[in-house]
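Field notebook, page 296. I keep forgetting to write these up properly, so this time I am using the form the group agreed on. The chain and the ligand, zinc ion, are recorded exactly as supplied. Prediction of the bound pose follows.
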Amino acid sequence: MSRVIFYSPHPDDETLSMGLAMVYYIAAGFDVHLVSMSNGEAAGVANTLNGSANGTPVVCSTPADHPYIHSPAREGYAPLTAADIGDARIAEARSTLGAMAMVPPTTPGVTGTVTHHIAGLPAEFGDPGSTSSTSPPTAAGIAAAKAVIKQYVDDYPNSFHYTMSPADHHHDHAACGLALRELKNDTVNIVPGGTNTYHDALVNARFFVSRLYWAISQPDGQYQQDLLTAANGTLAWFNAGARYTIYRDWLRNQVVKPYRAWNPAAGAYGVGYHQVVSQFTNNFGPSASIANLWHA
Ligand SMILES: [Zn+2]
Protein backbone atom coordinates (compact mmCIF):
# COMPACT_ATOMS: atom_id res chain seq x y z
CA MET A 1 0.00 0.00 0.00
CA SER A 2 1.70 3.21 -1.09
CA ARG A 3 -1.08 5.78 -1.35
CA VAL A 4 -2.23 8.01 1.51
CA ILE A 5 -5.32 10.22 1.43
CA PHE A 6 -5.59 13.04 3.98
CA TYR A 7 -9.06 14.53 4.46
CA SER A 8 -8.68 18.08 5.80
CA PRO A 9 -11.90 19.73 7.02
CA HIS A 10 -10.60 23.23 6.22
CA PRO A 11 -7.51 24.61 4.50
CA ASP A 12 -4.89 24.73 7.33
CA ASP A 13 -5.90 21.55 9.21
CA GLU A 14 -3.65 19.45 6.99
CA THR A 15 -0.71 21.57 8.09
CA LEU A 16 -1.64 22.23 11.72
CA SER A 17 -2.62 18.67 12.65
CA MET A 18 -1.26 16.34 9.93
CA GLY A 19 1.75 18.22 8.55
CA LEU A 20 4.49 16.04 9.98
CA ALA A 21 2.79 12.92 8.66
CA MET A 22 2.24 14.45 5.23
CA VAL A 23 5.87 15.45 4.70
CA TYR A 24 6.99 12.09 6.10
CA TYR A 25 4.95 10.17 3.50
CA ILE A 26 5.93 12.48 0.65
CA ALA A 27 9.60 12.14 1.57
CA ALA A 28 9.17 8.37 1.72
CA GLY A 29 7.92 8.33 -1.89
CA PHE A 30 4.22 7.72 -1.27
CA ASP A 31 1.42 8.92 -3.53
CA VAL A 32 -0.08 11.57 -1.23
CA HIS A 33 -3.53 13.04 -1.79
CA LEU A 34 -4.96 16.02 0.07
CA VAL A 35 -8.74 16.34 0.04
CA SER A 36 -9.77 19.81 1.19
CA MET A 37 -13.27 19.01 2.40
CA SER A 38 -14.42 22.64 2.42
CA ASN A 39 -13.03 25.95 1.18
CA GLY A 40 -13.54 27.52 4.58
CA GLU A 41 -15.31 30.63 3.38
CA ALA A 42 -15.76 32.92 6.37
CA ALA A 43 -17.16 36.38 6.99
CA GLY A 44 -15.23 37.15 10.18
CA VAL A 45 -11.77 37.15 8.66
CA ALA A 46 -13.15 39.03 5.64
CA ASN A 47 -14.06 41.84 8.05
CA THR A 48 -10.53 41.77 9.44
CA LEU A 49 -8.99 41.99 5.99
CA ASN A 50 -11.47 44.68 4.94
CA GLY A 51 -10.63 46.63 8.09
CA SER A 52 -14.29 47.06 8.88
CA ALA A 53 -17.36 45.24 10.11
CA ASN A 54 -20.44 47.16 9.01
CA GLY A 55 -18.56 50.43 9.35
CA THR A 56 -16.88 49.63 12.66
CA PRO A 57 -13.07 49.55 12.32
CA VAL A 58 -11.42 46.15 12.86
CA VAL A 59 -7.76 46.03 13.91
CA CYS A 60 -5.68 43.34 12.22
CA SER A 61 -5.48 40.07 14.15
CA THR A 62 -1.79 39.58 13.30
CA PRO A 63 -0.17 42.75 14.72
CA ALA A 64 3.30 41.25 14.43
CA ASP A 65 2.85 41.41 10.65
CA HIS A 66 0.29 44.21 10.26
CA PRO A 67 0.21 46.67 13.18
CA TYR A 68 -2.70 48.60 11.70
CA ILE A 69 -6.26 48.50 10.44
CA HIS A 70 -6.33 47.03 6.92
CA SER A 71 -7.29 49.36 4.06
CA PRO A 72 -8.11 47.57 0.79
CA ALA A 73 -8.09 50.89 -1.10
CA ARG A 74 -4.60 51.84 0.12
CA GLU A 75 -3.14 48.31 0.04
CA GLY A 76 -4.43 47.49 -3.42
CA TYR A 77 -7.27 44.99 -3.39
CA ALA A 78 -11.03 44.94 -3.66
CA PRO A 79 -12.92 44.37 -0.40
CA LEU A 80 -13.24 40.64 0.21
CA THR A 81 -16.38 38.54 0.42
CA ALA A 82 -16.72 35.33 2.41
CA ALA A 83 -16.43 33.40 -0.87
CA ASP A 84 -13.20 35.26 -1.69
CA ILE A 85 -11.83 34.03 1.62
CA GLY A 86 -12.64 30.44 0.62
CA ASP A 87 -10.84 30.86 -2.69
CA ALA A 88 -7.81 32.37 -0.95
CA ARG A 89 -7.70 29.56 1.61
CA ILE A 90 -7.83 26.85 -1.06
CA ALA A 91 -4.94 28.59 -2.82
CA GLU A 92 -3.01 28.66 0.47
CA ALA A 93 -3.59 24.92 0.88
CA ARG A 94 -2.41 24.20 -2.66
CA SER A 95 0.72 26.30 -2.25
CA THR A 96 1.36 24.58 1.07
CA LEU A 97 0.99 21.13 -0.50
CA GLY A 98 3.51 22.27 -3.09
CA ALA A 99 5.93 23.29 -0.36
CA MET A 100 5.45 19.90 1.30
CA ALA A 101 6.13 18.21 -2.05
CA MET A 102 9.61 19.72 -2.21
CA VAL A 103 10.78 18.19 1.09
CA PRO A 104 14.14 16.41 0.63
CA PRO A 105 13.23 12.79 -0.13
CA THR A 106 14.41 9.93 2.04
CA THR A 107 15.99 8.27 -1.00
CA PRO A 108 17.59 10.91 -3.26
CA GLY A 109 15.69 11.14 -6.52
CA VAL A 110 12.70 9.14 -5.27
CA THR A 111 10.01 11.77 -4.69
CA GLY A 112 6.43 11.19 -3.63
CA THR A 113 3.65 12.56 -5.77
CA VAL A 114 0.99 14.97 -4.54
CA THR A 115 -2.57 15.62 -5.70
CA HIS A 116 -4.96 18.24 -4.37
CA HIS A 117 -8.70 17.54 -4.41
CA ILE A 118 -11.30 20.22 -3.62
CA ALA A 119 -14.49 18.64 -2.30
CA GLY A 120 -16.34 21.94 -1.90
CA LEU A 121 -18.53 21.19 1.09
CA PRO A 122 -20.19 24.40 2.37
CA ALA A 123 -19.04 26.39 5.35
CA GLU A 124 -19.95 24.78 8.68
CA PHE A 125 -20.99 21.60 6.87
CA GLY A 126 -20.84 19.66 10.14
CA ASP A 127 -23.82 21.60 11.48
CA PRO A 128 -25.24 23.80 8.71
CA GLY A 129 -26.55 27.13 9.93
CA SER A 130 -24.95 26.87 13.35
CA THR A 131 -23.45 30.02 14.85
CA SER A 132 -21.08 28.03 17.08
CA SER A 133 -18.25 25.98 15.60
CA THR A 134 -18.34 23.72 18.67
CA SER A 135 -21.94 22.63 18.33
CA PRO A 136 -22.15 18.87 17.78
CA PRO A 137 -22.15 17.63 14.18
CA THR A 138 -25.57 16.71 12.82
CA ALA A 139 -26.49 13.46 11.10
CA ALA A 140 -26.74 15.40 7.83
CA GLY A 141 -23.31 16.89 8.39
CA ILE A 142 -21.74 13.49 9.01
CA ALA A 143 -23.54 12.10 5.95
CA ALA A 144 -22.19 14.92 3.76
CA ALA A 145 -18.63 14.18 4.85
CA LYS A 146 -19.20 10.45 4.46
CA ALA A 147 -20.41 10.85 0.88
CA VAL A 148 -17.20 12.67 -0.02
CA ILE A 149 -14.86 10.23 1.72
CA LYS A 150 -16.71 7.17 0.35
CA GLN A 151 -16.04 8.34 -3.20
CA TYR A 152 -12.29 8.35 -2.56
CA VAL A 153 -12.45 5.01 -0.78
CA ASP A 154 -14.19 3.61 -3.86
CA ASP A 155 -11.88 5.32 -6.37
CA TYR A 156 -8.61 4.55 -4.58
CA PRO A 157 -8.60 1.01 -3.22
CA ASN A 158 -5.70 -0.17 -1.08
CA SER A 159 -4.97 3.25 0.36
CA PHE A 160 -4.48 4.71 3.81
CA HIS A 161 -7.25 7.12 4.82
CA TYR A 162 -6.60 9.75 7.49
CA THR A 163 -8.66 12.62 8.90
CA MET A 164 -9.37 14.43 12.20
CA SER A 165 -10.52 12.76 15.41
CA PRO A 166 -14.23 12.12 15.95
CA ALA A 167 -13.66 13.66 19.41
CA ASP A 168 -12.62 17.05 17.97
CA HIS A 169 -14.84 19.83 19.27
CA HIS A 170 -15.20 21.61 15.92
CA HIS A 171 -18.26 20.14 14.25
CA ASP A 172 -16.65 20.04 10.80
CA HIS A 173 -13.65 18.13 12.18
CA ALA A 174 -15.85 15.76 14.17
CA ALA A 175 -18.09 15.16 11.14
CA CYS A 176 -15.08 14.02 9.11
CA GLY A 177 -13.85 11.77 11.91
CA LEU A 178 -17.24 10.23 12.52
CA ALA A 179 -17.78 9.76 8.76
CA LEU A 180 -14.50 7.89 8.29
CA ARG A 181 -15.15 5.82 11.39
CA GLU A 182 -18.64 4.92 10.15
CA LEU A 183 -17.17 3.82 6.82
CA LYS A 184 -14.54 1.81 8.68
CA ASN A 185 -17.24 0.06 10.68
CA ASP A 186 -19.75 -0.36 7.85
CA THR A 187 -20.18 -3.90 6.67
CA VAL A 188 -20.61 -3.71 2.94
CA ASN A 189 -19.93 -6.47 0.47
CA ILE A 190 -18.87 -4.91 -2.80
CA VAL A 191 -18.56 -8.31 -4.37
CA PRO A 192 -21.60 -10.45 -3.53
CA GLY A 193 -20.42 -13.20 -1.27
CA GLY A 194 -16.94 -11.73 -1.33
CA THR A 195 -14.80 -9.96 1.18
CA ASN A 196 -15.73 -6.87 3.11
CA THR A 197 -14.01 -4.39 0.84
CA TYR A 198 -14.64 -1.24 2.85
CA HIS A 199 -13.43 -2.80 6.04
CA ASP A 200 -10.34 -4.16 4.36
CA ALA A 201 -9.47 -0.79 2.88
CA LEU A 202 -10.15 1.15 6.05
CA VAL A 203 -8.67 -1.13 8.69
CA ASN A 204 -5.72 1.27 8.87
CA ALA A 205 -7.80 4.45 9.03
CA ARG A 206 -6.35 6.94 11.51
CA PHE A 207 -7.59 10.10 13.20
CA PHE A 208 -5.44 13.11 14.05
CA VAL A 209 -5.87 15.09 17.26
CA SER A 210 -5.57 18.87 17.11
CA ARG A 211 -2.99 20.35 19.48
CA LEU A 212 -5.88 22.27 21.00
CA TYR A 213 -6.74 19.05 22.88
CA TRP A 214 -3.28 17.82 23.81
CA ALA A 215 -2.91 19.47 27.19
CA ILE A 216 -6.37 19.88 28.59
CA SER A 217 -5.90 18.32 32.01
CA GLN A 218 -8.55 16.04 33.31
CA PRO A 219 -8.66 14.31 36.71
CA ASP A 220 -7.85 10.98 35.12
CA GLY A 221 -5.06 12.02 32.81
CA GLN A 222 -3.67 14.39 30.25
CA TYR A 223 -6.43 14.14 27.70
CA GLN A 224 -10.12 14.77 27.72
CA GLN A 225 -12.30 11.79 28.44
CA ASP A 226 -14.13 12.01 25.12
CA LEU A 227 -10.81 11.77 23.31
CA LEU A 228 -9.68 8.85 25.42
CA THR A 229 -12.99 7.14 24.69
CA ALA A 230 -12.70 7.74 20.95
CA ALA A 231 -9.10 6.51 20.89
CA ASN A 232 -9.80 3.45 23.05
CA GLY A 233 -6.19 2.98 24.04
CA THR A 234 -4.64 3.72 20.66
CA LEU A 235 -3.42 7.31 21.11
CA ALA A 236 0.14 7.58 19.80
CA TRP A 237 2.60 10.14 18.51
CA PHE A 238 3.22 9.88 14.79
CA ASN A 239 6.68 8.34 14.44
CA ALA A 240 8.61 10.36 11.87
CA GLY A 241 11.77 8.39 12.50
CA ALA A 242 15.36 9.58 12.30
CA ARG A 243 14.61 12.41 9.85
CA TYR A 244 12.34 14.25 12.28
CA THR A 245 14.53 17.36 12.39
CA ILE A 246 14.53 17.60 8.59
CA TYR A 247 10.74 17.49 8.54
CA ARG A 248 10.47 19.87 11.50
CA ASP A 249 12.67 22.46 9.84
CA TRP A 250 10.94 22.04 6.48
CA LEU A 251 7.53 22.60 8.05
CA ARG A 252 8.68 25.55 10.15
CA ASN A 253 10.71 27.30 7.46
CA GLN A 254 8.91 26.39 4.22
CA VAL A 255 5.53 24.75 4.55
CA VAL A 256 3.72 27.29 6.71
CA LYS A 257 4.73 30.31 4.61
CA PRO A 258 1.71 30.36 2.25
CA TYR A 259 -0.56 30.67 5.29
CA ARG A 260 1.29 33.85 6.29
CA ALA A 261 2.23 35.39 2.91
CA TRP A 262 0.87 38.88 2.33
CA ASN A 263 0.66 39.73 -1.38
CA PRO A 264 -2.91 40.95 -1.89
CA ALA A 265 -2.45 42.06 -5.50
CA ALA A 266 -1.61 38.41 -6.23
CA GLY A 267 -4.54 37.06 -4.21
CA ALA A 268 -2.48 36.04 -1.17
CA TYR A 269 -3.92 37.35 2.09
CA GLY A 270 -2.34 35.11 4.73
CA VAL A 271 -5.78 33.96 5.80
CA GLY A 272 -4.39 31.11 7.88
CA TYR A 273 -2.41 33.39 10.16
CA HIS A 274 -5.19 35.99 10.29
CA GLN A 275 -7.61 33.32 11.50
CA VAL A 276 -5.56 31.24 13.95
CA VAL A 277 -2.19 32.89 14.45
CA SER A 278 -1.83 31.36 17.93
CA GLN A 279 -2.24 27.84 16.53
CA PHE A 280 0.47 28.46 13.93
CA THR A 281 2.75 29.97 16.58
CA ASN A 282 2.12 27.14 19.05
CA ASN A 283 2.70 24.48 16.37
CA PHE A 284 5.59 25.98 14.40
CA GLY A 285 7.22 28.63 16.56
CA PRO A 286 10.99 28.49 17.17
CA SER A 287 10.66 26.52 20.41
CA ALA A 288 7.62 24.40 19.51
CA SER A 289 7.91 20.66 19.18
CA ILE A 290 6.48 19.60 15.84
CA ALA A 291 4.47 16.49 16.46
CA ASN A 292 1.28 14.85 15.30
CA LEU A 293 -0.94 12.89 17.66
CA TRP A 294 -3.29 10.30 16.24
CA HIS A 295 -5.40 7.29 17.11
CA ALA A 296 -7.00 4.33 15.40
ZN1 LIG B 1 -3.33 41.64 8.59
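OBSERVATIONS:
- The CA atoms of residues 19 and 251 lie 7 Å apart.
- The chain has a mean pLDDT of 93.
FOLLOW-UP: compare against the apo run.
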